[in-house]
């Protein structure tokens, strides 16, 4: 019953790729781990959820822990989140919940799913595998808030909590209907003093970059976690937007094989056989892209979590091992080549604790340290006049529309769905109004004007 409610509510992971939550929770596990680490610097929505909706989250976590029959239910967060931990502990005590809080250090990427599993259990997820293979299911704290609303209120996922920060006049947390334009979100944060700017859809490290020219085309999806508006900086462009041909040529000519990209790689540190420096060296020995094939060195790239430590912190030559890994992964995927774990022992590195990257180092390197101390104590709720709802907002197949132009819809109505055999989650109208258009990628809904 709970799984059905979660699926019917259209819940997917609140950040990242948006894996359908009902699919992930349809399992039995020894550990149910809640990711409350707020992995990306500058994003603050998980902080707000923990401080203001702790009891709701604990109720949902308890129910889901029973669903997956977990012997251990653990909230993994950073030890210096004192207010958040106090709120969670108070809710756990009030509800007499059998939940423990695991306090991690302040490092990036603490919220990486496989890193969290290792921190909590000491187990390394097999290369190319998932946490369930070592007895764990991992879900985000804000996803649990969405589960509560589905479980108790029968409320589908129609709104997103976002951090709007950077070069904006009034940095703030907002709750807006899915499909709200980024332009409106920026207005809610008082706009920006910049006439030309770049923006990150997500966090500084793994967010997707754009600029003022395509900002108006962006809309909030189920996985949007934040919008960071910044001055145009060559470093950020080179980090996120350099042409792959330029990246490859620089790697071929400038990589000094210092191995720092490997030494500081969070996946390598927990025993995953990923060696970015070997992938970089392979570039100089082969003809790209023709020679990217079923080769054990190339296939290491599949194991990359794309956290960006290698290029932001590690490489002394300002090269981009992450972008190379992404390129190689895509070429291998096109050929249907996958990584196959050979069963070798996975040995975490003894110096791992000393190789962790503090978030402040990332912000200093990226020139973003001045945004660290913004305070986000309240959440602004806004109801949009119109929304443009994407039909693909998660891993798996895109949804197919079941509404037509001119049709009246209520907020929470299902407007797009997919078959039971397909991986995904239904999509709901996020406002009440009339369907203006139904396209291959978007459904446009506008509130009716009172006469």
Automatic annotation (TrEMBL):
Pfam families in the cross-refs? Complex1_51K, Fer4_17, RnfC_N, SLBB
* Alphabetically ordered keywords of this record: 4Fe-4S, Electron transport, Iron, Iron-sulfur, Metal-binding, Repeat, Transport
Q: Which GO terms describe its molecular function?
A: 4 iron, 4 sulfur cluster binding; electron transfer activity; metal ion binding
What region holds the 4Fe-4S ferredoxin-type domain?
A: 244-275
Look up the record and report any one GO term of the cellular component aspect: membrane
Question: What InterPro entries does the entry give?
Answer: 4Fe4S_Fe-S-bd (IPR017896), 4Fe4S_Fe_S_CS (IPR017900), Helical_ferredxn (IPR009051), Ion_transpt_RnfC/RsxC (IPR010208), Nuo51_FMN-bd (IPR011538), Nuo51_FMN-bd_sf (IPR037225), PduS (IPR017054), RnfC_N (IPR026902)
Source domain of life is Bacteria
Name of this chain's protein? 4Fe-4S dicluster domain-containing protein
The organism's taxonomic lineage, starting at the top = Bacteria, Bacillati, Bacillota, Bacilli, Lactobacillales
């Amino acid at each position: 019953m709970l799984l059905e409610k979660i699926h019917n509510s259209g819940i997917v992971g609140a950040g990242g790729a948006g894996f359908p939550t009902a699919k992930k929770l349809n399992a039995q596990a020894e550990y149910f781990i809640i990711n409350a680490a707020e992995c990306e610097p500058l994003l603050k929505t998980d902080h707000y959820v923990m401080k203001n909706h702790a009891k709701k989250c604990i109720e949902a976590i308890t129910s889901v822990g029973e669903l997956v029959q977990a012997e251990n239910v653990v909230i993994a967060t950073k030890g210096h989140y004192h207010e958040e931990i106090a709120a969670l502990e108070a809710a756990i005590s009030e509800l007499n919940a059998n939940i423990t809080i695991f306090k991690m250090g302040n490092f990036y990427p603490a919220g990486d799913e496989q890193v969290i599993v290792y921190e909590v259990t000491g187990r390394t997820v097999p290369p190319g595998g998932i946490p369930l293979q070592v007895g764990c299911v991992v879900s985000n704290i804000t996803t649990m808030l969405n589960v509560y609303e589905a479980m108790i209120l029968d409320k589908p996922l129609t709104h997103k909590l976002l951090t709007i920060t950077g070069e904006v006049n009034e940095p703030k947390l907002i709750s807006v209907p899915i499909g709200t334009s980024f332009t409106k979100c920026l207005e809610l944060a008082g706009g920006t003093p910049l006439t030309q700017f770049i923006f990150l859809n997500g966090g500084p490290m793994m967010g997707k970059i754009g600029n003022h020219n395509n900002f108006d085309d962006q809309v909030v999806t189920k996985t949007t976690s934040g919008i960071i508006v910044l001055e145009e900086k060559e470093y950020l462009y080179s980090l996120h937007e350099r042409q792959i041909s330029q990246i490859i040529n620089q790697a071929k000519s400038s990589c000094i094989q210092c191995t720092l990209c490997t030494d500081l790689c969070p996946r390598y540190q927990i025993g995953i056989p990923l060696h970015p420096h070997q992938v970089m060296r392979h570039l100089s020995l082969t003809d790209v892209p023709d020679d990217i094939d079923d080769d054990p060195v190339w296939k290491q790239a599949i194991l990359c979590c794309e956290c960006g430590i290698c290029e932001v912190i590690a490489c002394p030559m300002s090269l981009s091992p992450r972008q190379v890994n992404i390129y190689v992964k895509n070429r291998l995927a096109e050929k249907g080549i996958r990584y196959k774990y050979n069963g070798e022992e996975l040995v975490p590195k003894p110096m791992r604790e000393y190789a962790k990257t503090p978030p402040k180092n990332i912000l200093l390197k990226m020139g973003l340290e001045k945004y660290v101390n913004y305070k986000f104590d309240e959440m602004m709720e806004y109801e949009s006049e119109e929304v443009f709802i994407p039909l693909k907002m998660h891993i798996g197949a895109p949804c197919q529309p079941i509404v037509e132009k001119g049709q009246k819809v209520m907020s929470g109505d299902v407007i797009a769905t997919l078959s039971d055999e397909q991986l995904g989650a239904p999509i709901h109208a996020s406002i009440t109004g009339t369907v203006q258009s139904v396209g291959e990628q978007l459904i446009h809904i506008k509130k009716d004007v009172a006469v």
